[in-house]
Amino acid sequence: MTDSTIETKIVIIGCGIAGLKAAQELYQQKFCQDVVETAPQVLILEARDRIGGRLYTVDGLNDRYDIGAAWHHDILRNPLFQEEHELKKKNLTASKYIFDDDYGIIFDEMGTKLNHDKDLKLEVVQNELEKFVELEYFSELEYPNTSYFKMVQKYLFRYKDFLTDAQIKYLNGSARCIELWHGTNWKKLSGKYAQMDHQGRNAMCLFYKDVVDRMATEFPLDWIKLHSQVCQIKALKDKQERISNRNRNLEILTKDTKNGKITKVLCDYVIVTIPQSVLEQSLYDVPAPGRIEFIPKLNQDIYDSFQNIHYGALGKIIFEFDSAWESKHTRFYYTGAINNNIIDAVRNGQAFNGEYLNKIDSLTTPTYNNTITEQLDPQNYPLLFVNYMGITGKPSLVMLMQDPLTSYIEKLNAQDEKATICNIFKPILLNLFKHLGYAHANNHNGSIYSEILPGLKNIIVSNWTIDPYSLGSFTACYPDDDPIELSLSLERGQSMRIRFAGEHTIMDGAGCVYGAFESGKREAQYILNNYF
Amino acid sequence: MTDSTIETKIVIIGCGIAGLKAAQELYQQKFCQDVVETAPQVLILEARDRIGGRLYTVDGLNDRYDIGAAWHHDILRNPLFQEEHELKKKNLTASKYIFDDDYGIIFDEMGTKLNHDKDLKLEVVQNELEKFVELEYFSELEYPNTSYFKMVQKYLFRYKDFLTDAQIKYLNGSARCIELWHGTNWKKLSGKYAQMDHQGRNAMCLFYKDVVDRMATEFPLDWIKLHSQVCQIKALKDKQERISNRNRNLEILTKDTKNGKITKVLCDYVIVTIPQSVLEQSLYDVPAPGRIEFIPKLNQDIYDSFQNIHYGALGKIIFEFDSAWESKHTRFYYTGAINNNIIDAVRNGQAFNGEYLNKIDSLTTPTYNNTITEQLDPQNYPLLFVNYMGITGKPSLVMLMQDPLTSYIEKLNAQDEKATICNIFKPILLNLFKHLGYAHANNHNGSIYSEILPGLKNIIVSNWTIDPYSLGSFTACYPDDDPIELSLSLERGQSMRIRFAGEHTIMDGAGCVYGAFESGKREAQYILNNYF
Ligand SMILES: Cc1cc2nc3c(=O)[nH]c(=O)nc-3n(C[C@H](O)[C@H](O)[C@H](O)COP(=O)(O)OP(=O)(O)OC[C@H]3O[C@@H](n4cnc5c(N)ncnc54)[C@H](O)[C@@H]3O)c2cc1C
Ligand SMILES: Cc1cc2nc3c(=O)[nH]c(=O)nc-3n(C[C@H](O)[C@H](O)[C@H](O)COP(=O)(O)OP(=O)(O)OC[C@H]3O[C@@H](n4cnc5c(N)ncnc54)[C@H](O)[C@@H]3O)c2cc1C
């Protein structure tokens, strides 16, 4: 059944940031000293034809863009950002970055600017809302977890006497800002874990490709094997079995995605860094492209912890234009359409009960299951636009969207419906243009895009929900989820030899590049401590 | 020695909000049921000729002003604000309030507006600084406490590579904003306790006099005795002594501040609500106007806990003008003068050590001891201006200042040097006028003030540091202070019968009106639970 067999000490599955960091650590702490060895002591098996995983810098017509992760978050405690900064101080090559946090602009369906308004004072009440949610969960140890949507409604109901009509209305938009952090709808998001405690500013990385490429130079190039989709990990328990497999402890089967050939890789340790969504497939006996079969099956702890976690679907669209605009504000946040009737519904509410919540629910955008059959209107969803004019000086917009919009749009894109995509975002973009000061003359540059929106040259759409090696964006908490369980069970591992790393296996920096980075370091360290 | 003797069950010393709340609770929970009693069962002995204590609404020419506390803080958990709101909902008289939190304006010595600036991004780095301080104290259980000034310098030193020159400079101003919360200099303030975790918005109370007057109607009027300065509290330990004092447990001596007559008040319980600063005098054998002698002396716990706490000196000046201006922004924050050389000093710093800190210290405003001999220039101090045009629509400014400026200015005022005060604030006010859009024609209205500043009709200056019944503003933490100790020792009390209330006797809402309010309720409850 296998076409060839190779042997190594440690296998890393997946060459995202977690895998890269694990390899860098293993090399620097240990294998750089082994001058005599010829065959690689570590192998990274990567299914795709590129390294980086969810770090993916794509080329557009105007510039480059990170269509996956783009920011260094929490810079007061971000170890990757610090590593990059140390290189810079030593005048070694390091990626660039820019502190792009600014005051941004919030606008609604009519294009009205909402923030920094002396009368509306939206940020002031938004702050209070966030404090309210924090205090609620602090108030009782066993405070029942509900959706973020319900927590917002609880605040609005309880404090309506201290809020203006406009504040009641627009908090239903500004509160949804949080969806763009998680890639998930506020009605699905856990009220307890939705709000994040940012530890310092964010710095936009320009670009993550440079980080990925730099890290890949810090260990031998022949450690990386692309096009290698792992499909099975078998623990060799039996002594006979081990002897017939050159005394190794693990047997890993990997399929070459170009020619379908199966290679058997014998090794002693493995660090599995595939995304949570892909790993979840291992729990069930359903064949799927990226699925890894574990023999024996994943342990009960891991199985159980997967029942208390979900996965988001952050997506991006990049809109490239052919001429500059005025505004250098980096962030433009669109609230989604808000039904005016919500004000009366809140004002007239007598009790905060199921009936009341149903009423409010019916006045807000419905959630959808993962299989979307209807046509979705992006006007109903909050969106974040990053203005490249304020970052690289190029007339491009990077738009962030979330579940269920991401799945819907990425599917349209896979069907090559780019014109449809432009058309449905057109009303929002036209409103945004007012704030950008973009006034392109009506001469078309001949592209299909510019017939829809003057000056639009190109669009690039992400593919994370469709790609079998990501299946969405990153870990997310629904009500009743507990993120600690999965990260604990995976940190404990399947066994001493079958280890896990990645953004979903760690609490500090969960979902983030630097969390994945730290988890890679952790597992490299674990193996070195126990094995060498 | 005593001129007369009266008898009651419970004495409350001080008729501030703590004393008022204690009386209201005692009446509502217990004494309103006693229809037969003739003599008052509770007596509030108040030294001043008015009730309210540090709640003090004064009349100006344009309007009324709270020269003491003005805001309901932390409205998500403020029980006094809630009590007022409940009355309002029942259409009973309640004081008015306005949510005056807005985006405000920050300006520097040159009058330049600093906030909401796309390039400076001062609020963004100010936020990061605050997060840094929080994380530092979280990072180790035994993190050494230092001044807030040093924490700010630590942030600037450590993160200077990520800050622009302008950010380094102006953080030295915006960070001092905190001085106006504590009434104390950043070099004296505890780094650990300086930053507050605001629980919801602030509402400006219009006016606290109405709250005070309303509360005073909720128990019999004859409970209050003004002009009654308590000078001694004696526990009657000895059985004989008690018998000769009508079987009461406590003997309290109080002096009539108008005619000097001494009254002996016999009672069983006392709640002492005098300010921390006044109570501190009881520890030492030095005569002073508001001092109460305790026989026996205050217990060792209380004595010790006073060694780990300080007191601030927030002060106010009200400037009244004769014609309106444009701006309705409520808050204008002046950063104090900032020496440009601080940028180079930070950039060139090699190590964060004593030498470095001395250098930075010498470039910033020095601290002073309480006895100020030099002339102070208000230009060197951060100040907050509240714009009444945005609150009541009257052309007045309420300015908040802090230690050591407060002591200096209040002393000038006591010497009737109002013109001097106007003169030294003139440059700052002229800069502020640009932001207010105030352009008064140069016709003087004949007052001494308007010769200094066109259109200025009147100024009103607070007196808290000089008044023997306040001696400053409210509790404050210096490095190495621990606010929990004082509030615990006072909550435990001198004994079961000698109790304490007031803003300095409670952790939740320490320093605030609502903290004092809660402490009054707590002590009334304690006596009712143990005694009745
Ligand atoms: C749109 C988007 C925006 C984001 N924005 C940010 C941001 O701004 N800041 C931030 O900190 N984080 C952001 N994130 C999250 C961040 O990208 C991830 O947390 C991080 O990159 C995950 O790294 P990883 O190594 O854990 O996983 P990955 O990068 O996914 O690496 C896993 C690797 O495993 C490979 N693989 C999968 N299955 C197999 C198999 N069977 N065999 C072999 N190989 C396999 C994959 O191809 C992949 O290369 C974003 C993510 C998305 C999708
Ligand atoms: C300038 C300033 C601004 C402030 N701003 C705010 C604000 O905006 N919001 C907020 O929440 N808090 C604010 N505070 C704090 C707030 O005013 C106090 O926390 C609160 O009013 C204290 O109430 P209390 O009852 O504890 O003390 P007090 O109000 O001081 O009452 C104590 C009483 O004891 C009396 N007394 C003293 N000695 C004797 C004696 N020997 N015999 C008899 N009586 C005596 C005093 O005359 C006084 O009436 C401010 C304070 C100041 C000074």
Automatic annotation (TrEMBL), chains A, B:
Gene3D superfamilies: 3.90.660.10, FAD/NAD(P)-binding domain. InterPro entries: Amino_oxidase, FAD/NAD-bd_sf, Flavin_monoamine_oxidase. Residues 17-528 form the Amine oxidase domain. GO terms for molecular function: oxidoreductase activity. This is Related to Polyamine oxidase FMS1.
